[in-house]
UniProtKB/TrEMBL annotation:
A Pfam family recorded for this sequence: DUF559
Residue stretches in coiled coil: none
Protein name: Very-short-patch-repair endonuclease
AbiEi antitoxin N-terminal domain segment(s): 12-43
């Protein structure tokens, strides 16, 4: 059946006018709606019953999934699931989406009329405006780390304001959003903080100065991975490094205590290489 073929090729949701442009008649669409094979949403979108619920909701509301909602759908690091969907309003169109966080500003990359999901460039632009600097940086660096975009492309786009600041600051080397948050929140220390450095056969999350190691445990840090990490911590300590290990919950919900741990370690000079005998 031509209708179902076109629907499946478009992720199960298509505007009726686009179906007609591809050779599907109005009669065939109406017949499928009556039979329950497809559903007709507001604004003349046609959907299969098992299509992604977020896409159906966007079509029904006349909005585009964007910002942190679309970032999460793309697999980027997002601090928490947003309480309300973050969406963008198509240019010049009045919409009513009271349960959504609507972004009204013009996109940096033009959208096609049939899109329900913003391209990554627009997603990053909106996160720069919507999220705190550290959270936005974590999302941008997640996109770079996953190679969904490269730095040269980011630099070539006409970002302004907070987004342009993120272009100058972001790096592809952070392995998680927690590392990005940690690094940017402690930039004021003016001590080198490098992510993902190899030390004795293993990567460490963050390396401060010459001797201070910070390891960040994710929410699923258990079992064999935790055992291996504990062994590496011991080896680093035996070799003269100082190791601070903190959790997701500490960084997200008890940041002052994490910051104080690092401040105290730096105050004691634990980030500095020990002087060798016979040298000044």
């Amino acid at each position: 059946m031509l209708l179902l073929e076109k629907m499946r090729a478009a992720d199960g949701i298509v505007r009726s006018r686009d179906l007609q442009a591809q050779g599907v008649s109005r009669h065939a669409i109406a017949k499928a709606v009556r039979a329950g094979t497809v559903r007709r949403l507001r604004r003349n979108w046609i959907t299969l019953p098992d299509t992604d619920g977020d896409l159906q909701a966007a079509a029904d509301r006349g909005v585009i999934l964007s910002c942190v909602t679309q970032a999460r759908r793309l697999g980027l690091w997002v601090p928490e699931r947003p309480k309300h969907p973050h969406v963008a309003a198509p240019g010049g169109r009045h919409i009513e989406a009271p349960s959504c966080r609507v972004h009204w500003s013009a996109p940096i990359v033009p959208r096609t009329p049939s899109t329900l999901e913003d391209p990554l460039e627009n997603v990053l632009m909106y996160t720069a405006k919507c999220q705190s600097h550290d959270f936005a940086l974590a999302i941008w660096e997640s996109a770079l780390n996953k190679q969904l975009i490269d730095y040269a492309k980011l630099e070539s786009l006409p970002f302004v304001g907070a987004a342009r600041d993120l272009v100058r600051e972001c790096s592809p080397h952070a392995d998680s959003g927690l590392e990005s948050i940690f690094r940017t929140r402690l930039a004021w220390l003016r001590v080198p903080i490098r992510p993902q450095i190899w030390l004795y056969g293993h990567r460490v999350d963050l390396f401060i100065g010459d001797r201070l190691v910070v390891q960040i445990d994710g929410r699923d840090h258990v079992g064999a991975q935790r055992t291996a990490d504990n062994k590496h911590d011991i080896e680093l300590k035996l070799r003269g490094y100082h190791v601070i290990r903190v959790s997701y919950e500490q960084i997200m919900f008890d940041w002052p205590s994490v910051q104080f741990l690092v401040q105290e370690a730096v105050a004691r000079g634990l980030h500095l290489a020990k002087r060798r005998h016979g040298r000044d």
